[in-house]
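Weekly sync notes, structure subgroup
Attendees: PM, AL, DS (notes)

Item 1: joint prediction request from the bench team. They want all two components modeled as one assembly rather than separately. Inputs as received:
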Amino acid sequence: MKKKKPLILVTNDDGVSAPGIAALVEVMRTLGDVVVVAPDKPQSGMGHAITINSTLRINKVKIYGVKEEYSCTGTPVDCVKIAVNKILKQKPDLCVSGINHGSNMSINVIYSGTMSAAVEGAIEGIPSIGFSLCDNSIDADFTASKKIVKAIAKGVLEKGLPKDVCLNVNIPVVKGDEIKGIKVCRQARANWIEELDERFDPSGQPYFWLTGKFENYDKGNKDTDVWALDNNYVSIVPTHFDMTAHESIKQIKKIKF
Amino acid sequence: MKKKKPLILVTNDDGVSAPGIAALVEVMRTLGDVVVVAPDKPQSGMGHAITINSTLRINKVKIYGVKEEYSCTGTPVDCVKIAVNKILKQKPDLCVSGINHGSNMSINVIYSGTMSAAVEGAIEGIPSIGFSLCDNSIDADFTASKKIVKAIAKGVLEKGLPKDVCLNVNIPVVKGDEIKGIKVCRQARANWIEELDERFDPSGQPYFWLTGKFENYDKGNKDTDVWALDNNYVSIVPTHFDMTAHESIKQIKKIKF
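Output from the run, pasted for the record:
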């Protein structure tokens, strides 16, 4: 008996027609039946936002010629919720998000729409992966990424993932044969500093752009995603949604409130 | 020498004029100098979203008569970033968010604007607490909450918090003398199921509301926030922003990609 093709849900945060999701769809269609549900506009930095104070719509699109494809008016997390609870008749075998135009290493994971979609996939019990290429450009070259994406997605389809865990995969910007390999690592401690660019509108009123400089507090530690990427490795961080600081429970219990 | 008053940053996700933040300001002004920077409109469910594709504005308001008070066009996380990097001359001694109109226990933490503001405070190195009352109503009674908020904020001002850790405090809806005490616990495993309410607009086109039923996968486990709240305890979950599933690194390394 022929083995049934896996069902793969594809989403992202750069929008349904971004080059990064096109590259991801191209790889996924070689691995299974693909359903695309992705935002109708860029949703970078949306983190784990959901739409609860307004309504959501989905619209059929014909961009990739896959099994089913929709744009959605909501956030990346909304896309996963609407795919799982409305569009798909069965739970997908894999949920992939990306390929993001830009890094989601380290603290970026918490602001990232790409990764939040993967985390939502994990919440729904689906093996899920967020892929990001460390290049913000619309013209980013996804050639080398596609091979890596395929290898990692195949591995996850075959072996599965631990319960409640998804993968945060970041790919360095080097030519394919310069990538040294894949490192499974932890999220580096880091922050964005000097984060506001103040400008003045034509009537003299101030407004602000969030911006900043990435500061790595984990310099030199070879078990982090930042180290892996700086050294031309693909980084994989197993990522979960238990925000409990378990190691602090004992200490907090000592505070007499 | 008189001890300097602590500087306290207050924010929320229900908007700068919500009754919950009014209650929080009322308590905080008894503990220190208060600066309010809160969203100019409801931002529930915004998770850790930040505004990167458009601009931000802040506007002085005069609601509470505290040291400084602003509304901000952005998300709760934007409010913390703009307070720390633009408005405040020094790092605050405490950042409090809430009191949220509604529970942020368990998996809600990841969707919560209230808690994301507290997490952002922790990222900025500020002792931070998110407070939520398990009552969504605009008419929620914050009387009992105020006493609890004061006790916990005082404890944190005096003892500090572990590095990179903030507190997720949820308060059950009972009269003050029915609250049994405070439990430091972990985030319960749970999910929202059946999440879409499909409706049709006047022209017959479908649209959706996210909704759902809370499902606790940790039933009976007395070390969780859901158990604490169900049993009339205030729950405190120490919460961090390291999303790494450390215990899975070894297992993922075994997958040959």
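Discussion: The longest strand of chain B covers residues 94-101.
Action: AL to compare against the crosslinking data before next sync.
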